[in-house]
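Hi Y.,

Following your request, here is the sequence exactly as I used it, all 427 residues.
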Amino acid sequence: MIRMAATVVALLVLLGGTTLPSASGDPADAADPAAVARDGDDVGERRAFSVNRLMSMNDPTRNRGQVARQLRTLIKHTPRGATISIMSFYMASSITWPALKAAYQRGVDIRAIFYGGPEGKPLSGVSSGGVKLTQLIREGRSRGRRGSWVVWTTNAARGKAGKTTMHAKVWQFSKVGTTRKVTMIGSYNNSDAADARAYSAMVTVALPRVYDEVQKVFLQSRKDRKPPGNPQRRASGDGWDLYFMPSLPITKENDPVMDRLRAIPAAPETRMVVSMYSWQGRRGAWIARKLAAMVRAGSKLRVVVGPDVDRSVVRTVRRAGAKMEDGCWKTGNRKRPYAYTHDKEMTATWVKDGETHYAAWLGSDDWGNGGGGSQSDQVTIGLYNEWAFTRLNKLLAPQIAHEPDRLSPCHPLPSLRRSAGPPSLLE
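Below is the corresponding structure, written out as tokens. Let me know if you'd prefer a different format.
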């Protein structure tokens, strides 16, 4: 506990001297509906409920199921006649499913897109909640109810290369309580298995343009076919931006992460933190080289190394002077033997033209050019404000606090022992 508290303070000092709010007065925590609202399901409570912005982390060692509980709260406060839209690699949460079922039964429309493997079929072994939802909607349609549907994609929805997936992790609500157009984006796979072992963050915003831009790609993904040209899409607004993959092709010139890094000065005032589950391939190499060049120019970089980060990436950024943190370790628990980062997150602060800037990025995009990266469906959001920067750094602190930092090979999932193939269904 002492180590973690010290890490929070040290991390925020490292990242520009930001003051950590007290635990009792943290406005980000106070905004969490799971913390301030009852779990009741009456109409009056839904009418009184509202959402502004939220950010949470599933912490398998200290706060298991936090994101699932937050999702449950949002679902419970979605009124009859509203629509929930889901793009998820898979869904198998005992926390979320009962609330989703109850929402459909009270008249909420649910539209979902799940990864269906090479054959585009329901995957009962890993997506039990998706299978239950499919059956529930099928039964409703047999009684004449319309407005809800489920699509199981054949590999990626918007790109048809082999060994790809519908890898996005997005939940949208046309209305939650009194708030319209709510969007949740991040790296969290909605399942009990993910709750038990994987650090993964999600951010929730009530920004109508974000909602609308994500909906455009959501409805395109429903078609389960590649659109004409390069399916990479981008959008931006006041204090935010979005990018959507696949990117076919991906190059150093059109890579959104490279554009992000090119916009940040390589200077001593620049402080960056990256927590990455998978980082490899030729794309991973050019991102690593760019970050290494920034570090050599004086920027500070801390990297939480996930279980599928290539050793060449570690060597590149470590030799430049980056601080490396272990992002996968054995817990000593027989039922849950590993804890690891599943994040695809980054924070940064920098000074430009005398003004200090802050940013945080959350999403599903692993930094690679394979099935977990640029060839698959991904959604990542960038938020350019001090709240997002400070909040995400606070949520990443427990991973950084873990010791020792051995950075030894760590294989929590069977797929990581294979040299090729699609991402594991627990990613």
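The longest helix spans residues 281-296.

Thanks again,
Q.
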